[in-house]
Design goal:
Helix content: over 70%
Structural class: mainly alpha
Distance between the termini: 36 Å
Order of helices and strands: HHHHHHHHHHHHHHHHHHHH
Radius of gyration: 26 Å
Largest sheet: none
Length: 435
């Protein structure tokens, strides 16, 4: 069933692509100068795209950073996406009517995108098939909504060229963004088994970032070409290029910040306070449980940072806990270590929410925020397994957690953990590289 959703999206994109290429080859390219200008813009946008191969590799290994990076890189080629959207919404060209249809739009977008991604494919970092399929279907949707109305004259007769046209385009952009979010969430839900609602919510929130800049630039390009001609493309693409550069710099800063937190988390392992890889295993599994519970991307970021730093309070102890296993400590001692960890976390400059999760991970679950409930349950699970396969196995460890659901562990978190492990989460956690 899950594979059927993915192949349905890809199959639909393939059918649309074949129809567009076949129609264009048979009847020829209408207004080749316009098609060449937009095709060149799309190809250049793909050439300037950000490679995402490393993100996909880390996602395959279960790295919690990959989910956030995937959210940041949903639009790795913003200029190409904006150019494709502008071509789909193009009406007049320097006040002269255009007559390219939906199928030619699809053909030009696909051909230009393929030309632009060849260098990335040669480096083994081409875009995922689902991303290309989504691009084709989203552009086709926008073109189907706009081009028949424009070519038939009903758009100009009913709306004209005034402010109502802008309002119509904004409405159409909203529908296109919703279509793109649905097409992105459906395959993701099929692959991961996560609830569809939270996935769709994350995709819609992602539209507010670089997605809104892409939509705005696409509409401005279409309107600019309608008045000034194709020369407007070279001017109107500059703001989006600068926005893309800013997003890349922000992503680089976040990556450096994340690496710093990861290094701090490894301090407990270097000092011999915890087992090697414990904080990373807890972070990976905690993020998997958080996604299962439907946490937002921001909540997952706080959860990941708190999970990495959950044992940092042990650096303040004179006598280290044996094997770093805090799950078996008396409640008062576990709470004291958690409070020390919260103080240390605050001094590192992490967000206040992270320090709160760290210092409250030992409280009864009814008094904890959701992230602290997850960290406590997952930490206890990893402590019970002792870093390797427990003699009783995962089922025995989960059963022991279930026995503590009256006070220590939230039942919903434990059951989500069980579902993640049933899908092979434990095996993936063990494969995550440290550092």
């Amino acid at each position: 069933m899950r594979g059927a959703v993915v192949w349905t999206v890809r199959g639909a994109a393939g059918v649309v692509t074949l129809a567009g290429l076949g129609h264009t080859l048979w009847y020829g390219v209408v207004e080749p100068g316009t098609a060449l200008a937009f095709g060149t813009l799309i190809a250049c946008g793909e050439l300037a795209r950000r490679d995402t191969g490393d993100t996909r590799d880390r996602r395959a290994d279960g790295d919690p950073r990959a989910a956030r990076d995937a959210a940041e890189e949903r639009r790795p080629a913003p200029l190409g996406s904006a150019g494709a959207l502008a071509y789909a919404l193009l009406g007049p060209n320097a006040t002269q009517s255009t007559h390219h249809g939906v199928l030619q739009i699809v053909a030009v977008v696909v051909a230009a995108a393929l030309a632009g991604i060849v260098p990335h494919i040669a480096r083994g970092r081409g875009p995922a098939a689902d991303h290309l399929a989504r691009r084709v279907l989203t552009v086709a949707f926008a073109a189907v909504c706009f081009q028949p109305l424009y070519n038939s004259g009903r758009l100009e007769h009913g709306i004209g060229q005034g402010p109502y046209l802008v309002l119509f385009l904004l409405f159409l952009l909203g529908l296109t963004a919703l279509c793109d979010a649905v097409l992105a969430a459906a395959p993701a839900g099929a692959r991961t088994g996560r609830p569809y609602g939270p996935l769709l919510r994350d995709e819609l929130r992602a539209q507010l970032g670089i997605g809104s800049a892409i939509c705005a630039t696409g509409v401005v390009m279409a309107l600019g070409v309608a008045v000034a001609g194709l020369w407007a493309l070279s001017v109107l693409c500059v703001p989006l290029l600068l926005t893309q550069l800013s997003f890349h710099r922000i992503t680089a800063i976040r990556t450096t910040y994340r690496q710093t937190i990861t290094s701090l988390a490894r301090a407990t392992e270097i000092a011999g306070c915890t087992r090697p890889g414990h904080s990373r295993r807890v972070a990976v599994l905690s993020c998997a449980v958080g996604r299962e519970l439907g946490l937002s991307q921001r909540e997952l970021t706080v959860l990941e940072y708190a999970a990495l730093m959950h044992d940092i309070g042990q650096l303040s102890l004179v006598d280290p806990v044996r094997a770093g296993a805090t799950a078996g400590l008396p409640a008062a001692e576990a709470r004291r270590i958690a409070v020390l960890g919260g103080e240390v976390a605050r001094q590192t400059g992490v967000p206040a929410e992270v320090a709160v999760v760290v210092e409250r991970q030992a409280d009864p679950y009814r008094d904890q925020p959701v992230a602290a409930r997850i960290v406590r349950a997952v930490n206890a699970y990893d402590d019970l397994l002792g870093g390797t396969r427990h003699p009783g196995g995962s089922l025995a460890a989960l059963e022991q957690l279930r026995l503590g659901t009256g006070r220590d562990y939230q039942p919903e978190v434990v059951e989500c953990l069980a579902r993640v492990l049933a899908r092979g989460g434990r095996d993936r956690v063990g494969q995550v590289p440290l550092g």
